[in-house]
Amino acid sequence: MTVEVRGLAKRFGRTTVLDNVDLRVGPGVTGLLGPNGAGKTTLLRCLATTLAPDAGEISAFGLDPARHEQRTALRRRLGYLPQDPGFYPHFTVFELLDYVAILKELTDRSRRHREIRRVLAEVELADRARTKVRKLSGGMKQRLALAQTLIADPDLLVLDEPTVGLDPEQRMRFRALASRLGESRTVLLSTHQTEDVAALCERVIVLTAGRVVFDGTPEELAGVAAGRVWISDTPPAASTLFWRTADGRYRTLGECPPSGETVAPAIEDGYLLLLGATSANAGEGAA
Ligand SMILES: Nc1ncnc2c1ncn2[C@@H]1O[C@H](COP(=O)(O)OP(=O)(O)OP(=O)(O)O)[C@@H](O)[C@H]1O
Prior knowledge:
This protein is of the alpha/beta class. 32% of the residues lie in helices and 25% in strands. It folds into 2 domains: 3-218, 3-Layer(aba) Sandwich (Rossmann fold), CATH 3.40.50; 222-286, no CATH class. The longest helix has 15 residues, at 168-182. Bound molecules: adenosine-5'-triphosphate. Keywords: ATP-binding, Nucleotide-binding, Transport.
């Protein structure tokens, strides 16, 4: 396993944000799902060595980020896409990547510039190399953030909501890139997009209130809702989650509606059931 986490705990003030998290993540693409505030970013920050946990152990490539020298060695093998990458707005795209590449110890100028051209091509920003960062669109900034993550070809990629702000074409390109990387590297990404998990991840971990509540394949997550997704001509009781589909029928998650027929569940259904969300939005579906 690339990453092993045991008994990880983190509090901010009185709030327990990570509560005894155990994880093992190996090569391939693993998705981290969880509602807002579940602790995903906090967990990824601990793995990316930007935040020290209060308790527990992390080992990545056998290295312990709590130890200074091992932390440095780990950072050499790590690419981290933070949720809010702070960019210097007056840098050009190329200057910014050059700066990051220097921090990543690419000291040879021509090798470094080759590497920058490589990552710019990966995220389709080659034609923006001379553009100031402040002039990029939101989606382009996100791709620039991804580009800096790829510099020096890290073995472990920790990506916090990498598809936020990407248009559909760029999301597809990201999936292609991430799955290619996942063939030989370890990619751990957080997302709210269950479609990305379905399309891309071999494994999915669900975190809620700082605890791992599911760890399995996307199919197994969908399977949580097996026999609990229905299509019917009449709306169900208002206490279940349902909506009217384009063909005028009702899709219900949870209790069987009158004369309902079961349909195959999606990952999102399993995820929502796991979070106990079937009555949280009761009746909204009829709107
Ligand atoms: N530096 C901090 N100081 C205080 N509280 C924090 C800090 N960072 C995170 N938190 C709190 O920790 C909890 C978990 O936050 P975190 O950002 O890890 O969640 P998340 O699962 O990534 O959420 P989202 O999906 O909204 O990005 C939240 O209650 C948040 O307010």
